[in-house]
Write the structure tokens for this entry.
Amino acid sequence: MPFLNGESSVYLVTDKAVTRIGLEDNYVHSYAWSPLSNLLAIVHGSPAAVRTSLYNLESQRVFEFGVNDMTPGGTLRFSANGGRLLLAALIGNNAALSLWNLSSKGTECKQVVTIQARNIFFADFVNATGSLILTATTLPFPEGHGYKIYNDRGGVTLEHDWKNLAGVVVIPPTKPVSTLPAPIPTPAAQAGSAAPAPASTIDIPVSADEIEKKVRAITKKLRQIDPLKEKQRLGQPLEETQLAKIKTEAALQQELDLLEAALAKLK
């Protein structure tokens, strides 16, 4: 376990030893453990140069994210399967959500998407694979209360205005596929979504290369759906083939969740 002392140092305590994690600065703002208990993420640095670093159980820095990708009061979250890390720099009117894929040792991290938003005071994953991110604007901010759920392509899957929203709590997901209850319909909600295909009908390849190939293909299809949903939201006419494509989103998203969960296990 890590802890902070009065000098803003971080120590890693195990059943074998107590080691000090070497930081080149004296500012430690927050930290988060991976659910896999193999990586520790630390937000540190002076207010003018805040950064996030990953450390292994030997107290070695294995990866460093960009400077000022985070803020001292930002949110740091691992997905429940340990395969993704969310850096949410929450700065009132300006906020940036940065989503990263993590390797098992943390040495190879790839940015998935960056989302620019406004008035965000809360951010967290709502499914185990980290493909869905909930953000919220709550009191004491004077206006614009409500929540949004973003997918890992930067598109808004769901949004709901909620006047005087005081807070949001996410029940920690424990399964590869989200089992959240259906959201309350809103005027802006998209109609005609098809139910996801049963998990038993989804073929999971054996090799990591084949899984990554399928992930890329499905991600491409989902990205093609996002602009169609935006046209639908704006009331623009769509062709039957375009409406049919929108209805495949739920099944594609479920398949993507299962593939990413399988890929995380292989890594």
User: Anything to note?
Assistant: The longest helix spans residues 208-233.
